[in-house]
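Sanity check

After download, print the first record. It should look like this:
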Amino acid sequence: MSRRAKKRAVGAPSHDGRNRALILALTLLLMLGAALAVYLFPRLGVAPGETASSRRAPLHTSLEYARELERQGRWSEAAEYVHQEMKRNPNDSELYQALGRIYIQQAHWLPAKEVLAKGLSLNASDPLLHFYMGRVYYHLKQPEEAAKHFQQAIQFDPKMADAYDWLGLTYLLQAAAPAVAGFPLDRLKVEAALKEIAKAIALDSSKALYHAHAGAAYSALNEYGKALEHLNQAVTLDDNQAEAFQQLGDVYRKQSNWQQAESAYRRALQLAPESAAIAHALGETLMQQGRYSDARPLLEQAVRLDPSTAQYRYSLGTTLIRLGESQAGQAELARYESLRQSSQNLASLQRDALAQPKNLQLALALAVAFKKAGRFNEAVLEYRRGIALDRACADCYLGIGVVLLELGKLPDAEQHFRQVLSIDPTHAQAQNNLGLIYLQQGKAREAVAILEKAAAAKPEAYILSNLGAAYIEAGEIEAALQTLRHAQKRDPRSAQVRVNLGRAELGAGRAEQAINQLQQAVQLAPNDAAAYYWLAQAYEKAGRASESQAARQRFQQLSQQSRQ
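Expected structure tokens:
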């Protein structure tokens, strides 16, 4: 969001059997997530899923050129090139296969699904089309559909090692799902996963990831000897696999082999320094050895990287208390308890959604809960699951757009808000959020036009405030003042409205009136950096230099805290 205005878009853990199953499930999910990055961004010239038997000479040299653009990470150019070829050869299934792969590597799952479906309508026996479609369904959290397509890929190409591995990963995802929702881990699914991963290893025993996946599955079954055998093979084949070292650390911890666990985790963290899970695992390993001073910075790192995971807060709080910092430790434990309660509510929603997979309202409720917990990727996946249930789900597209807007991905957010308006042209929240994007892009006139429509349909204070901000950016100060006074009547305690009203008064040359509004804004929202920024400007215009300096210092302090 712009600093010019703050705009609005819509106790110790127990160790019973259920929690052990949950830990196993979360371990599997962490491993699956780590593995996906490798699959999404292949380092070799051969795409995942292509084997000696499945790779064919392309029908057009443009496919080789598109592949070269992919290798360079020039996704948009590659997609455009394939689109041009499609116009000349609309019935060539390999072009749809190529475009689907490009979308997958950008995590554009829904466009990939549409393209691959068209390719399959042209050639239903293409193993790579089925393989890529399986990956799409996997990421859309539809493992049953994913498994069907991986099985089809194997049927048409029995030597496609990656298809067996992905089928195994799909079974692992299904195995973990019940435990995440509080039910026992599905051991039969883990065993089924192992069978498929073993087939991948039999076809290509030199691929480190296959051994890492097998090791994680054996670890979930508490078969630590076999887990270590595969994980050590994985790091021997490729000592740059962070997830393999992480899994090694997990197995050693289960065996209380603290030194080996520490060594494995340190290597994993060296390879993946932004992993909160690895930092926390290493910190807990040091805690087990009584090395609380060494554990502290790692646990603080985990909390900084992922402040919404309750267990990280608990470990840090416990460590601080052990180090004699009781007040800080208790504060962390209080945050842990709050997050734990939220997590329980989330787990309840997950259980309900698991029991009723076709219930759109449950999918939406779970998406909102994930978003509130700061788990944006999972929120987006639930919204996309909602779209799979109802292509005309405006709230699903709106939810994805809001997440993307908060993450600063303006073009993608704009695309989703426009999709909402194609379903419901009078959707005020989509119009409001589209107006925010225009404001951030410096398109004041476009913002005014769309926000006027939103305010006419839904004249709530936050929409009127955004419209007032758009009028200010467009230089229409009187319109801004009139709109913002209307907003103030609707919500006299809105700091956002006060900030924008102060800006408008400042634009009208009335510095003292601006100061009055902005002083009330900082009283209502004492940590609003934008309010202090504009208060400093107003003091300066009024010739109150010392007060301007103090407000500016407070703005800088809040901005620094926000960046941290």
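If your output differs, re-run the checksum step. Summary of this record's structure: The chain has 29 helices and no strands.
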